[in-house]
């Protein structure tokens, strides 16, 4: 079996892990940064939550954001369920958890570039050094993608031997 065929055998497991990682990465962001630390809300840079109506608008934005991450997680669970029913999909913890890291890192990169940089609707930690916090968010995302990809490759190579 050539490398292309081997990669395709892992595709259902990788897809499930990436979607779960997107959802879990979003949940981590929403729960930790939006709710627990309250560093920002979804629209806090364009509609600061200084009045009750603005706070309510930001809460709706946060809720829509969380609904999107919930949908990504559900897609990941469905894909994982489907992958589990396929006999030809090799099960590898390294491939699966590496894929989750790729998804979580991709979440950081996409959300960080779109919401923080391009649209500017919020920043990781507004105020002093907000650009550094935003860049750090992107760097963490890139590191997660790289580590996840290395785990996926190691898992594929371990089973191919």
UniProtKB/TrEMBL annotation:
Q: Which InterPro entries match?
A: DUF2243_membrane
**Record's keyword annotation contains Membrane:** yes
Source domain of life: Bacteria
UniProtKB keywords: Membrane, Transmembrane, Transmembrane helix
Record field: transmembrane = 12-37, 63-83, 95-119, 131-152
User: Sorted alphabetically, which Pfam families does this protein's record hold?
Assistant: DUF2243
Q: What is this protein called?
A: DUF2243 domain-containing protein
Per the UniProt entry, what species is this protein from, by scientific name?
A: Gloeocapsopsis crepidinum LEGE 06123
């Amino acid at each position: 079996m050539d490398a292309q065929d081997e990669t395709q055998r892992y595709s259902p497991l990788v897809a499930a892990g990436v979607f779960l990682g997107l959802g879990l990465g979003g949940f981590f962001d929403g729960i930790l940064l939006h709710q627990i630390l309250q560093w920002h809300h979804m629209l806090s840079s364009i509609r600061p939550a200084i009045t009750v109506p603005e706070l309510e608008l930001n809460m709706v934005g946060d809720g829509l954001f969380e609904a999107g991450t919930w949908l990504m997680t559900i897609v990941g669970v469905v894909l994982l369920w489907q992958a589990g029913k396929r006999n030809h999909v090799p099960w590898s913890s390294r491939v699966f958890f590496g894929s989750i890291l790729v998804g979580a890192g991709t979440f950081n990169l996409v959300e960080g570039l779109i919401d923080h940089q391009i649209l500017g609707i919020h920043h990781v930690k507004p105020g002093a050094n907000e650009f550094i916090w935003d860049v750090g968010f992107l760097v963490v995302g890139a590191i997660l993608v790289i580590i996840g990809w290395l785990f996926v490759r190691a898992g594929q190579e371990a089973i191919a031997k």
